[in-house]
Automatic annotation (TrEMBL):
Keyword Coiled coil tagged: no
Protein name as it appears in the record: Orotate phosphoribosyltransferase
Domain of life: Bacteria
Keywords: Glycosyltransferase, Transferase
Statement: the UniProt record of this protein carries the keyword Plastid: no
GO MF entry, a single one: glycosyltransferase activity
Coiled-coil ranges from the UniProt annotation: none
InterPro entries, A to Z: PRTase-like, PRTase_dom
Organism: Clostridium facile
Length: 213
């Protein structure tokens, strides 16, 4: 993991930038050859706003949204997105509406839950699922199952980086795709070429960051 990170700018909003760090990374679902660092997009308020503008372009004139579910620390983007979608304009489907911005809770078993006082913002609502990154799709699928359990209707998925165009027939709108990192690969632990060649693991990674080993 001593190689220099590759900086990648969005072709649509050049002020939205991620980094691809080469190495042998392990997530809870897979082994990957790049860690996609989206920290600045989530925490730099200017970049988060530009990311929200990108997502708003997809939904503002075509999609009614009641609730934005923010996964992986994407609350800043979600707040900006709600603001953009509710701006007063005859072109805006959500003009002057109320959009809830909700972060799920996870219990001791790692299950995604919503407390009683939050459930009214989920049940019967048109939901936009905002995820930092989608690689294997497992986190997105678990989120969809949970939201379905609570009676939510997911009408779209947005991700900063995604290798998938849809999850369970729901379209994924992303700022960066696999084509932006042509040699990006994800492997099961059984098929990981790094492990087969006895290359050490560089770091454990999730959507919040990585920890070197």
């Amino acid at each position: 993991m001593n190689k220099q990170a590759i900086e990648i700018k969005s072709s649509i909003h050049g002020d939205v930038i991620i980094s691809a760090i080469p190495g042998h990374f392990v997530t809870s679902h897979s082994h990957i050859n790049y860690y996609i660092d989206i920290t600045r997009v989530k925490h730099d308020h200017n970049m988060a706003r530009n990311a929200a503008l990108n997502f708003a372009d997809y939904y503002s004139s075509t999609t009614l949204v009641d609730t934005i579910i923010c996964m992986d620390g994407s609350e800043v983007i979600g707040s900006f997105l709600a603001r953009e979608l509710t701006k007063t304009s005859y072109m805006q489907m959500n003009s002057s509406s109320t959009i809830y911005v909700v972060t799920p809770e996870f219990n001791t078993n790692g299950q995604m839950i919503f407390r009683d006082n939050i459930q009214d913002m989920i049940a019967g609502k048109r939901i936009l699922l905002l995820i930092a990154s989608i690689t294997t799709g497992k986190t997105a699928k678990r989120s969809l199952e949970c939201l379905d359990y609570y009676g939510g209707n997911v009408i779209g998925i947005s991700a900063i980086f995604s290798t998938m165009d849809e999850v369970q027939d729901i379209p994924v709108k992303s700022i960066f795709q696999k084509e932006d990192i042509p040699d990006y690969q994800t492997y099961s632990f059984r098929d990981c070429p790094f492990c087969k060649e006895n290359h050490k693991i560089d770091a454990l990674a999730n959507s919040y960051g990585y920890s070197k080993i």
